[in-house]
């Protein structure tokens, strides 16, 4: 985008340009009076000069009215300066009209182009004034300071108002930034609460449920098979230790203990030691956050299978693809109808947490199930 296209349109409705236009016509009027006072009468040369002045003023008015911002205004301004030069060289008093042209150049052009043109106008006016000084009465020195002071005052007021508006805009942006930061903070708090609820459900709650089931089984089998009951108690103790590690992780915000110095396949085999774990493709190291979430998804799916599926076989399959990783947890339990309004009732927060975890990674989670034929939880993430 060119610099010129960024300039605002110059119209008579704009405050400062309107003052520039008025100053131009007043200066031209004063210079015309000065020109006619040279010889004490109106000569044929004065008539030609008056026609040139009228054409110059018409060119100015036409450009203000019809020249569009951009290339048209630049062409118009160039024509104005080209016409001003011979008019000033032949009639030196018109060098004063360079003053409104200074401001006009600064309005229309960017600074890198305006400065050379202002220098040109000033140089021509200075040279003409030096070599063509007149002794006749000249109203221009009286009018010019007033015009310069007026335009400078309006220019200052315009800059002041722009600074005030700019400061108001900055204040609005600062308030909007603070509001956005507060909104993001609140959203972050809510997101963290959701994350913690998933963590607690998939770790502590599932671990406590597992301990409850193991201890209940041990109590029922204590008299009939003391050895088997003790095995259940030992498994419950292992689950208690792991839950304690999870609780400490919440405090220290560490990675899942099962992933400490282990790969994701090894961690899956540890948390799913009673089920079959398959790994397909070439295992690779994933982002710790991705591995942690996949491990939690597997734990949640296994907990659902243990509590609700009454399955005889559960298989976990981790597949490494070139641009993604899939995790499938399949059981041959009682299943359910996913299209039913009551689908998954009794499975608590588990399936919802699995979907939320997958979506947080930019992936997908699907649940396929048929009553009496088991359930498959399939998760795919791009990593």
TrEMBL record:
**Enzyme Commission number:** 2.7.13.3
Reactions mediated catalytically: ATP + protein L-histidine = ADP + protein N-phospho-L-histidine
Under InterPro entries, the record lists: HATPase_C_sf, HATPase_dom, His_kinase_dom, Sensor_HK_TwoCompSys, Sig_transdc_His_kin-like_C, Sig_transdc_His_kin_sub3_dim/P, Sig_transdc_His_kinase_ChrS
Q: Which GO terms describe its cellular component?
A: cytoplasm; membrane
Compartment(s) of residence: Cytoplasm
MF GO annotations: 4 iron, 4 sulfur cluster binding; metal ion binding; phosphorelay sensor kinase activity; protein dimerization activity
**What general EC class does the enzyme of this chain belong to?**
transferase
**Swiss-Prot/TrEMBL keywords:** 4Fe-4S, Coiled coil, Cytoplasm, Iron, Iron-sulfur, Kinase, Membrane, Metal-binding, Transferase, Transmembrane, Transmembrane helix, Two-component regulatory system
Would the keyword Membrane be found if you checked this record's keyword annotation?
Answer: yes
What are the Histidine kinase domain coordinates in residue numbering? 293-383
* Superkingdom in the source lineage: Bacteria
| Pfam family, any one | HisKA_3
The portions of this protein that span the membrane are 20-40, 47-67, 73-94, 101-128, 140-156
Cofactor needs: [4Fe-4S] cluster
Query: Coiled-coil stretches, from where to where?
Result: 166-193
Q: What does this protein do?
A: Member of the two-component regulatory system NreB/NreC involved in the control of dissimilatory nitrate/nitrite reduction in response to oxygen. NreB functions as a direct oxygen sensor histidine kinase which is autophosphorylated, in the absence of oxygen, probably at the conserved histidine residue, and transfers its phosphate group probably to a conserved aspartate residue of NreC. NreB/NreC activates the expression of the nitrate (narGHJI) and nitrite (nir) reductase operons, as well as the putative nitrate transporter gene narT.
The molecule here is called Oxygen sensor histidine kinase NreB
Upper classification of the source organism reads: Bacteria, Bacillati, Actinomycetota, Actinomycetes, Streptosporangiales
């Amino acid at each position: 985008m060119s610099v010129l296209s960024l300039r605002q349109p110059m119209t008579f409705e704009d405050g400062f340009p309107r003052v520039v236009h008025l100053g131009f016509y007043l200066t031209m009027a004063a210079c015309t009076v000065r020109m006619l006072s040279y010889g004490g009468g109106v000569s044929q040369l004065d008539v030609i000069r008056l026609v040139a002045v009228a054409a110059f003023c018409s060119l100015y008015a036409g450009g203000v009215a019809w020249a569009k911002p951009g290339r048209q205004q630049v062409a118009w301004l160039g024509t104005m300066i080209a016409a001003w030069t011979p008019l000033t060289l032949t009639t030196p008093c018109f060098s004063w009209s360079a003053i409104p042209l200074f401001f006009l150049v600064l309005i229309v052009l960017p600074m890198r182009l305006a400065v050379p043109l202002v220098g040109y106008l000033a140089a021509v006016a200075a040279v003409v004034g030096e070599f063509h000084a007149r002794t006749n009465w000249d109203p221009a020195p009286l009018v010019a300071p007033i015009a310069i002071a007026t335009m400078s005052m309006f220019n200052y007021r315009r800059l002041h108002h722009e600074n005030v508006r700019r400061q108001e805009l900055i204040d609005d942006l600062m308030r909007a930034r603070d509001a956005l930061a507060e909104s993001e903070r609140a959203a972050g708090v809510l997101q963290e609460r959701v994350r913690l609820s998933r963590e607690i459900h998939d770790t502590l709650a599932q671990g406590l449920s597992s301990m409850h089931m193991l201890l209940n089984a041990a109590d029922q089998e204590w008299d009939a098979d003391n050895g088997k009951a003790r095995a259940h108690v030992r498994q419950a103790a292992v689950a208690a230790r792991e839950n304690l590690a999870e609780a400490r992780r919440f405090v220290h915000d560490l990675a899942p203990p099962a992933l400490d110095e282990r790969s994701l396949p090894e961690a899956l085999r540890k948390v799913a030691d009673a089920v079959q774990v398959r790994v397909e493709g070439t295992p690779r190291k994933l982002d710790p956050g991705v591995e942690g979430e996949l491990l939690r998804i597997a734990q949640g799916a296994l907990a659902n299978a243990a509590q609700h599926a009454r399955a005889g076989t559960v298989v976990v399959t981790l597949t490494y693809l070139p641009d993604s990783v899939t995790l499938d947890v399949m059981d041959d339990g009682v299943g359910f109808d996913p299209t039913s309004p009551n689908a998954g009732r009794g499975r608590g927060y588990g399936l919802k947490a699995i979907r939320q975890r997958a979506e947080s990674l930019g992936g997908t989670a699907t649940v396929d199930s048929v009553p009496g034929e088991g359930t498959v939880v399939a998760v795919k993430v791009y990593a």
